[in-house]
């Protein structure tokens, strides 16, 4: 091989190496996300922080979790996102959604943790752990709670871990007050016996005549809620066997339990004053 041939081979090898290097840099540039870094562990257990592309997902994590608070009043149902806080009254059902854009060829493992923030509680001692992408849980005690989603994506020996910011829910303390009477005269004003019941998780109420005859009973499951007023419960419409009772004094016996552990026991007289009008007809009523 003459000297010219050797020089040509060396130059060719140099040019080939430069081309390969440029191609590698270009591929690394286009495969590197610009807005997020996520934790990644390799097959030998060495941890490192790298920018990684997970294909076909809305972002690098492939998740956009949120919680839907399904309160006792449908109008109060709200969506709470990671990093946000929301106050509610008990009992409240929280519906947790992972909203995972599962990447192609990756397997996904989900875990939701819910813990109380009372007494420095943390995610390492959760009240409950759930391993579904979507799940539900009912909060019945006052105080602060956090919920958090953990995801693990695996593909062969590649593992990618993600965890959301906590979602904070604050359950209010209880309150219960009962009025002295109501006017069931069908004028859309004070027609039913309504109580203020905030964060009440158990309730049992009964109405009697002055002679001890039971007229009506109701609990938390059967009580109706006032539209647009989630703290108001309707306990009685003033009727027995479909007919409004006479004007007079009746008696309420009520027992309830608040989200803060307070027990309520109320016994009081209730005035029913339907006036002189029942629907569109006038009538007079006798005392009970």
- What portion of residues belong to β-strands? over 45%
Q: Which CATH architecture of the largest domain would you pick?
A: Sandwich
How many helices? The count is 1
Elements, N to C (H/E):
HEEEEEEEEEEEEEEEEEEEEEEEEE
Query: What kind of sheet is the major sheet?
Result: 8 strands, mixed
Shape: elongated
Q: Termini, distance in Å?
A: 125 Å
Overall strand count:
25
Rg from Cα:
33 Å
> Structural class given helices, strands, pairing?
mainly beta
Notes on the structure:
The protein has 1 helix and 25 strands. It is mainly beta and 288 residues long. The protein folds into 2 domains: 33-171, Immunoglobulin-like; 175-282, Immunoglobulin-like (Sandwich). Strands 1, 2, 5, 7, 8, 10, 11 and 12 form an 8-stranded mixed sheet that branches. Strands 14-23-22-16-17 form a 5-stranded mixed sheet, with no helix packed on it. Strands 4-3-6-9 form a 4-stranded antiparallel sheet, with no helix packed on it. β1 and β2 (47-50) form a beta hairpin. It is elongated.
Quick structural summary:
The protein has one helix at about 5-30, and strands spanning about 40, 45-50, 65-70, 80, 85-90, 90-95, 105-115, 130, 135-140, 145-155, 160-165, 165-170, 175, 180, 195-200, 200-210, 215-220, 225, 230-235, 240, 245, 250-260, 265-270, 275-280, 280.
Furnish the topology, listing elements before pairings.
Elements: H1 3-30, E1 38-41, E2 47-50, E3 66-70, E4 78-80, E5 85-88, E6 92-97, E7 107-116, E8 128-130, E9 134-139, E10 143-155, E11 158-163, E12 167-171, E13 175-177, E14 181-182, E15 193-198, E16 200-208, E17 214-219, E18 224-226, E19 229-236, E20 239-240, E21 243-244, E22 248-258, E23 263-272, E24 277-278, E25 281-282
């Amino acid at each position: 091989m003459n000297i010219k041939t050797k020089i040509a081979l060396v130059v060719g090898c140099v040019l080939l190496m430069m081309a390969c290097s440029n191609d590698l840099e270009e591929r690394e540039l286009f495969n590197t996300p610009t807005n997020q870094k996520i934790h990644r562990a390799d097959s030998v257990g060495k941890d490192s922080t790298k920018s990684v592309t997970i294909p076909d997902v809305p972002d690098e994590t492939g998740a956009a979790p949120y919680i839907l608070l399904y309160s006792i009043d449908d109008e109060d149902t709200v969506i709470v996102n990671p990093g946000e806080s929301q106050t509610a009254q008990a009992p409240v059902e929280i519906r947790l959604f992972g909203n995972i854009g599962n990447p192609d060829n990756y397997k996904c493992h989900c875990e939701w943790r819910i813990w109380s923030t009372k007494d420095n509680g943390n995610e390492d001692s959760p009240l409950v752990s759930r391993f579904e992408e979507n799940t539900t849980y009912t909060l019945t005690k006052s105080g602060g709670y956090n919920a958090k989603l953990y995801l693990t994506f695996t593909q062969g020996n590649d593992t990618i871990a993600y965890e959301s910011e906590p979602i904070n829910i604050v359950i209010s303390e209880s309150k219960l007050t009962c009025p002295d009477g109501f006017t069931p005269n069908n004028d859309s004003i004070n027609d039913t016996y309504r109580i203020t019941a905030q964060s009440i998780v158990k309730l049992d109420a009964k109405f009697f005549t002055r002679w001890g005859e039971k007229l009506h009973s109701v609990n938390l499951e059967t009580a109706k809620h006032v539209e647009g007023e989630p703290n108001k419960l309707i306990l009685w419409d003033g009727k027995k066997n479909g007919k409004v009772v006479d004007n007079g004094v009746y008696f309420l016996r009520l027992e309830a339990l608040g989200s803060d552990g307070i027990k309520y026991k109320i016994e009081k007289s209730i005035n029913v004053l339907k006036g002189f009008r029942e629907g569109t007809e006038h009538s007079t009523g006798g005392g009970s």
